Amino acid sequence: xxxxxxxxxSLSTKExxxxxxxxxxxxxxxxxxxxxxxxxxxxSRIIRERKLDSFSDYCHLLQTKSEEEENYFIxxxxxxxxxxxxxxxxxxxxxEHEIPKIIARENKAQAQxxxxxxxxxxxxxxxxxxxxxxxxxxxxxxxLPQWDVKIxxxxxxxxxxxxxxxxxxxxxxxxxxxxxxxQQYFIQGTGANSKNVKVSKQIRDLITFKQLNLLHEWPMKGxxxxxxxxxxxIYFDKPTQQELFxxxxxxxxPGGLLILGHSENLGAYQKYFSxxxxxxxxxxxxxxxxxxx
Length: 293
Known about the structure:
Layout: H1 2-7, H2 13-27, H3 36-50, H4 55-64, H5 66-77, H6 88-109, E1 114-120, H7 127-140, E2 147-155, H8 158-166, E3 168-170, H9 179-185, E4 186-188, E5 196-199, H10 201-204, E6 207-211, E7 224-229, H11 238-251, E8 252-260, E9 274-277, E10 280-282
Parallel strand pairs: 1-2, 1-7, 2-6, 7-8
Antiparallel strand pairs: 3-5, 4-5, 8-10, 9-10
């Protein structure tokens, strides 16, 4: 059978190089030899789903029908590892320090409509933006109705965005959360859905899910109080990282935050930010400098 045949095929150096170059040119993500086994597994699944006999057949398909096939391929090959309140210290910092700081700023400004804008720029299946929304509700409590709160959740993968927008998760995804959080913000399924929970409407209403390739144009017009860019920068090469840090900087309000993953750092761009905590970086409140891209 064809499915069994191509399971035994090796991924040639030429084919692996093609995949790496294609992914880099379309997404900016840098794959190296350490990702070869991951590429092989996902490439094998793609071939099964597309009912092809070899890796080279699919490489040819990408070359000849690139525009039609690109979205499917990127969805299949990119990594989406996430969980609710992953790297919890970031959400603790948001609740204990940053949200009170924003509230005090807006109250002092006596704005007609007080607002908070947060961007989850690699939102995957939605656990990160939902964790942000829960953190906001926990921190603001009864004040929330007086505020205009919006969370933007973006990702390159349309499949994971659809899952995030649906807000339905296996029970196991929330079993480590405090019981009060589970009961207040998740609805237990019944019958055929008894093994699933759904994020409550009050949480979902705060979030807009949109597909976005970080290397393409960013259509957002306003600035953000906080940008989460966690565990995605590591997949880009150094020049692309520098370009992205410069763009993120321009989209952060003066005094706002950029939050990276635990294994990421700003490198040379550290000079444009101050440290706010573990991989939490603050843009100066008064910004006269121009960031070099």
